[in-house]
Amino acid sequence: MFEDTIISLQSFIMLMGASFLAGFLDSIAGGGGLISLPAYTLTGIPMHSVYGCNKFSAAFGTTIAAWRYWKHKMLDVQVGILAAVGAFAASALAAKVVLYFSDSTLKTMMFIVLPIAGFITIMNKNMGEENLSDTYSKKKKVILSIVIGAIIGFYDGLVGPGTGTFALMAFCFLMKYDLRTASGNAKCLNLASNYAALAVFLMEGTVYFKIAVPAAIFGIAGNYCGAGVAIKKGAKAIQFMLMVVIVLLFLKMGSEVLFS
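-> structure tokens emitted (260 positions)
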């Protein structure tokens, strides 16, 4: 079997564990790709297949997390769908715009933005404990949903890592959702970009199903468990995981800026 999948048994076991951890982290605060992408890379499969397989497992895992948030009424469906539409359109546009920016410029931008995001999170110790989104009119919520979706989708097309994390923060800070509902909304937004990208990878034939399907199963399990933690533990657990993701993103972007 493992000869057919082009990876060793040890690599397969490592990848399954990483897929579970990535799903667990991603379902709470985003950033699962920080774990899964390096794990896929270490298996030695071609890079285009790394992205194809990773997107396959991420798409199904995100679906489960979004479903669980919706089931527990921690997802504003209208807002999530509007944001997803905005994200889909903007991500497609960003795929063209990104050609005008160098990698080093994009990485430097992230290196500057991440400490600010971390500082805001630390200073707002009571961030996202209350859902105050109802203080906004329906019209304002519609506009903000589309704008957030467009900005985050554009970022996803330009840079990628941390898309779910920034979506969560946007729903929390800009629309005043509690962290649990913000996380649920972010998952809905993520579905659009994940499945759009997955469709492309599938058409290009870059998904190794013998690797991607088992990884997706472990990713689904991780997403299910992570969403459960977010549902039970609430804002404090999400805020803690949010800081973990921000630190990981900062370290990743910092190393790429310094060594590029």
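Residues 1-5 have pLDDT under 50 and may be disordered.
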